[in-house]
Amino acid sequence: MDLEEKLRILGGAARYDVSCSSSGVRRPARAGKLGDCARYGVCHSWSDDGRCISLLKVLFSNHCVYDCAYCANRASVSRPRASFTPRELADLTMDFYRRNYIEGLFLSSAVWVSPDYTMERLLLTARLLRQEEGFNGYIHLKAIPGASPELIRQAGIYADRMSVNIELPSEGSLRLLAPDKRKEDILGPMGEVAEHISANREERKRFRRAPAFVPAGQSTQLIVGATPESDLRIVELAEGLYRRYGLKRVYYSAFVPVSDDPRLPRLESPPLLREHRLYQADWLIRHYHFTSGELLDEERPQLDEQLDPKSGWALRHPEFFPVEVNRADYEELLRVPGLGVRSARRIIQARRVHSLDFEDLGKIGVALKRARYFITCRGRYYSGARVSEEEIRRNIGTLCGTSRGRAGKANQLRLFGDDGGLRGVEDAITSASGEI
């Protein structure tokens, strides 16, 4: 099989993995090295919102010894199979880079032969790129569940980011749909990476020239809709992963039916709107100081598909509102729908000079179409009087593009277009104005 055919098969097989981000690392250009890596993207090339522009995203192999029901590459499925060699993939990466097709590498793999065998091939590829080819650009490697700690440690020396996909939200679901995998095999590498990242940070405080270990941190992916877990359980799991393992990101992937396995649910289409809401809830936990218990509870375990989670929380807590923008502290401003981190900081700064009115808020970028229902300026509402909850819900639902008759069409998360190109994950968690 020639290299072009391998790339066609293994590039297409990688499209189900959304745990792909290049932000958070800075590797400047060095004499004798090829490429560099900027904090908000790859090779000094990023979009205005900090998204990665282009990565070579492939599987090392789609030969798999596991038979996970939800996976397009499972052992029992009949499909074209291919595998690279470390040298082939290193040469391909360098060739694409020199042609300016890509700015980095995202490398995952099915479990080929065994976890250690697969992890060793990923490690050899990264080592060839760094040591023999002098590649100084971005590399994201998948840590294979069940691989030995020593292989994980060595791979982390060459990778900017690593990730271990949990995929299913509970141990029971893992036993049902992925009986070859164990929870310990997934959390073990995740814990190893977290431990080495922490130790490396302490070492670099003492020795500035010590090599960095996974400087962009680690991430994971959860499949949404393949199993019956509620949004509450998924958000609680993500919150626990951030707290325990210091993850940079948890990615959510709407379940795409790829087989007629009776263990899988029958869905007309992937639950993309649910995925979109989970990204928004995740953003609130990471950047807006919300907890999972504030967004969801046992009586309300599912996110409202008609409202973004922040607006839903606001409508359930009328005692918190209205918020007077000229007196509220930063934390209170963050709780207002339509106010984000940037606009809250701008409000704090601007009101030091003079008290603000609604015209001032519009000038500094506040999304008044959403925020006006929950704030006052100088003691007055935007419209002069507070409207009913029903009207707020109806108007905000229309702004989100999810009002009745439009749900699931306008603003659902699209990770891949018709041409297979990677779309921006961040689009799923910000409104048109850039604020939640």
Structure description:
This protein has 436 residues and is an alpha/beta fold. It folds into two domains: 3-260, Alpha-Beta Barrel (TIM Barrel), CATH 3.20.20; 309-410, no CATH class. The chain is 37% helix and 8% strand. The protein contains 15 helices and eight strands. It has helices spanning 3-13, 86-98, 115-132, 149-158, 171-177, 183-206, 231-245, 272-287, 292-295, 309-316, 330-334, 341-350, 358-363, 368-371, 389-399; strands at 56-59, 104-108, 138-142, 161-163, 218-224, 249-254, 323-324, 375-376. It has a six-stranded parallel beta sheet with strand order 1-2-3-4-5-6. Strands 7-8 form a two-stranded parallel sheet. Strand 3, helix 4 (149-158) and strand 4 form a beta-alpha-beta unit. The longest helix is centred in the middle third of the chain and has 24 residues, at 183-206. Residues 38-49 and 403-434 have low confidence and may be disordered.
CATH fold-type name of the largest domain: TIM Barrel
Number of H- or I-type helical stretches: 15
CATH architectural grouping of the largest domain:
Alpha-Beta Barrel
**Quaternary assembly:** single chain
β-sheet strand percentage: 5-15%
Helicity range of the residues? 25-40%
Using the alpha-carbon principal axes, give the shape.
globular
Mean pLDDT: 84
The CATH top-level class label of the largest domain: Alpha Beta
Task: Tell me the span between the first and last alpha carbons.
Answer: 49 Å
Low-confidence stretches: 38-49, 403-434
CA-atom Rg in angstroms: 23 Å
Task: Name the structural class.
Answer: alpha/beta
Domains (count): 2
Strand order of the largest sheet: 1-2-3-4-5-6
Q: Strand count, sense and closure of the main sheet?
A: 6 strands, parallel
Order of helices and strands: HEHEHEHEHHEHEHHHEHHHHEH
